[in-house]
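Lab notebook page, bench 4
Experiment: in silico fold of construct C2
Operator: M.H.
Input chain length: 251 residues
Purpose: comparison with the prior construct
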Amino acid sequence: MNILRTAAVVAAIGLTMAGCVARENPSSESGEDFPTAASEEPTSDSEDTSSGGGGTEGDCAFTADQSGEPSVGLPPDEGPVDATALALTTSAGPLTIQFDADRAPCTVQSMAFLAGEGYFDGTKCHRLTTSAGLRVLQCGDPAGDGTGGPGYVVPDEFPTDLPPAQDGSSVTYPRGIVAMANAGPGTTGSQFFLVYGDSTLPPDYTVFGTLDEASLATLDQVAAAGVTPGGNGAEDGAPVTPVTIESAKVA
């Protein structure tokens, strides 16, 4: 998922999680300017699973992607999830994501399922961006390089209520939002990004939760330590302060 790219494109950053937000995580090789997840593949029949702003409880229709049989199986389609938050214990400090199941029921269903399977335990947050238009930490990739995913596709539940950005074609993902990375419609998997500073992106990344103040303080410290520059420039790469998810528990 390539969540963002440079400050010149889409406010210099597009989260196309193939490396961050666009695919599962913005991929440094894709040349995209967004959070993307490079690892996830579109559904095998190229079906567009976008729901255009919100899934329907009991009708999530999770499907396997082209990578093969999902290693953890498929989440149950029926909801709602009996969980209000996802508590991440990380090497940098605790991060608590308050779920927004009203906004993205299928995404919350998937994230709670993956946490319950121990999917995120021991994984690292592989990408930090510190540009003026894109300030996010990307996590959720078992491969640790922006190419991994759970082996299934989560229906798109793109936001329709984010404030418009000054360029008129993008929106602002405000500080404290947590959203899914992807590589285009119908490719959302397990990679997600934590927004620690207002970020300008297309409205193409499902918002499924928010961070509390203590979590934002942790992110601020990680961001302040800086980035180890990667293929997308000096403001995009692995965080200097390693962030490893030691455990992920639903509450």
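Observations: The chain has one domain: 17-41+85-250. The CA atoms of residues 81 and 109 lie 6 Å apart.
Next step: discuss at group meeting.
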